Amino acid sequence: MTVVPVIGLLLDIKAFSPAPNAAEVEAIFYAPLEMFLKDENRRAEEKEWMGHKYLLHYFNYEADGKEYVIWAFTAGILIRVASIVYQRQPAFLEQRPKFWN
User: Fold this and answer.
1) What whole-number distance in Å separates Cα of residue 8 and Cα of residue 85?
2) Inter-residue contact 36 to 44 (CB < 8 Å)
3) Which of 16, 25, 65, 92 has a CB 3.0–4.6 Å from the CB of 20, allowing a cystine?
4) Alpha-carbon span 36 to 40, nearest angstrom
């Protein structure tokens, strides 16, 4: 399976009208990209697959009185995007799995 994240900039947020697949997306909310470089509100679990250890990251975030957990593959994508946008590494050990290029 190949996943290709698509990242874009919105000039007019009001013109954005997402139509998520309810079986895949629980909620749509806005979170600051820079939070994925900070060690605040983050935890990680060490996992192993085919002899390779990696960290599965979880970020807790509150928006509009609701609590969200951004984790696993989504968190990994956002860590990578934030690193590129802000041109710096996260404040924590990322330890990506070998199967993540």
Assistant:
1) 12
2) no
3) 25
4) 9
